[in-house]
Amino acid sequence: MKRFLRYTLILLALLVAFVAISAWPNIGTLPDAAQTAKDARSPEWRNGKFENPLPMYTNVKGGVLQMLASAPGEEPDAPVPTVDSSAVYRTPPASGLRVTWFGHSSMLIEIDGTNIVVDPLWSERASPFSWLGPKRWYEPPVPIDHLPHIDAVIVSHDHYDHLDRASIQAFNALGVRFIVPLGVGSHLRGWGVPAERITELDWWQDATVGNLRIVSTPSRHASGRLSARSDVTLWTGYALIGDKHRVFYSGDTGFNDTFADVGTKYGPFDVSLIESGQYDAQWPDWHLGPEQAMKVHEEVRGKVLIPVHWGLIKLAHHAWTEPPERILAAAKCSHADVLVPKPGQAVEPTMHPVIPRWWPSQHVATAKEKPIVASTHGDPAQKFDVSTCP
Predict the structure, then answer these.
(1) Which range is the signal sequence, renumbered to this chain (predicted)?
(2) Is the pLDDT of residue 221 over 80?
(3) FRET partner for 69 with CA separation of 20 to 30 A, picked from 27, 210, 261, 303?
(4) Considering only 14-28, 194-208, 213-227, which range has the smallest mean pLDDT?
(5) What is the structure's pLDDT at 60?
(6) 327 pLDDT band (50/70/90 cuts)?
């Protein structure tokens, strides 16, 4: 028995060592004491970490602990159609503004002569492990080396589905600049990105890349990468302000009362790229869901809405096609102009292209059946009014 226990402990130790070694490079490096002291000057820093002005409600038992399960329709049962736009990039956009959505929140924005990559995710999994975690449903539609010249990469926060080590290092090899929220620069420096090519922003701060002004806008979310110290890096959205065009990207966010201010200060936006998937009524303050995404689009004064944060990996319990279906239903009430491109399909939103429906028909829950409505103060009984239809 003693020998059996000894061998069992040795095997457990080896397993723990394997897990730690395989995850360690991807976890990243949290801010040191000097960086934390600087970040603590932020108005969003309270109680030793970044905090949202509005707390977030989470039903751990009813929501988070059930995320590992899967139901029919939550993932594709046939190949997802994608487009390789490599040839398109040989010519600049005729309108001056072109957006390519690669799935989830990974995008290329070509705006007034400046090319920006958003939350790049070219790895197979959104996870610290190469063998475990949410796996992408299709290969990257466009290889990184087929993209046009990239001026900067912007990152919204450090969750694995938005901050991918391998992708960051690939773009670092191209010598690009990185715009990130406070604290996230520590991860990049740990992965070999020179400090002089990293700009960290607090909410409402801005940076300039070429002729493009990039403004960090508030979001309601969280951060962390399998560390005991969560929320010591900030989360954000972005307003991209060019000479002729303006783009809003929500980042990951729950609904809050800052979007109207963004619209007043920086709108109207030619296109809004708003997270519309990976939501659950058990944690309604973490992600918008389709109907609240439409409300954000209205408040920031967006002209065309492209839903993002869906269509690549499974992170929540809803049909994988539910986000676009519910977005289009909400658009009928608000009379919004919505584009749902195929992954990898480059579109010029101001040209109002017609994009045929490309995702399969299947049962999806409606807004009435499974509403996603954020709480006003972390209390599920007190909710924002986001109704746009009678």
Answers:
(1) none
(2) yes
(3) 27
(4) 14-28
(5) 74
(6) very high
Tokens of 64: 């988070």
For 138, which DSSP code? S
Determine contact, residues 274/297, Cβ cutoff 8 Å. yes
* The two structure tokens encoding residue 18: 């394997």
pTM for this one?
0.94
Show the tokens assigned to 353: 């292209």
State how far the Cα of 289 lies from the Cα of 142, in Å rounded to an integer: 27
What pLDDT band is residue 251 in, cutting at 50, 70 and 90?
very high
Residue 308: name the closest of 116, 102, 84, 114 by CA.
102
Domains and CATH numbers, the chain: 32-351 (3.60.15.10)
Which residue in this structure is represented by tokens 């919204």? 156
Percent of the chain with pLDDT over 70: 91
Chain centroid, CA 172 distance in Å: 20
* Terminal-residue alpha carbon distance, the chain: 70
The enclosing H or E element of 208 equals: strand 206-209
What is the three-class DSSP state of 170? Answer: helix
In 3D space, the residue among 43, 41, 64, 150 whose CA is nearest the CA of residue 100 turns out to be 150
Give the number of other Cβ atoms within 10 Å of residue 355's Cβ: 12
Both structure tokens of 229: 């110290």
Whole-Å CA distances, 153 to 84, 116, 162, 166, 247? 20, 6, 12, 14, 15
Query: DSSP letters along 22-86, please?
Result: HHHHHH-----HHHHHHHTTSTTEETTEE--SS-----TTTTGGGTT---TTSS-SSPPP----T
pLDDT classification of 16: cutoffs 50, 70, 90: very low
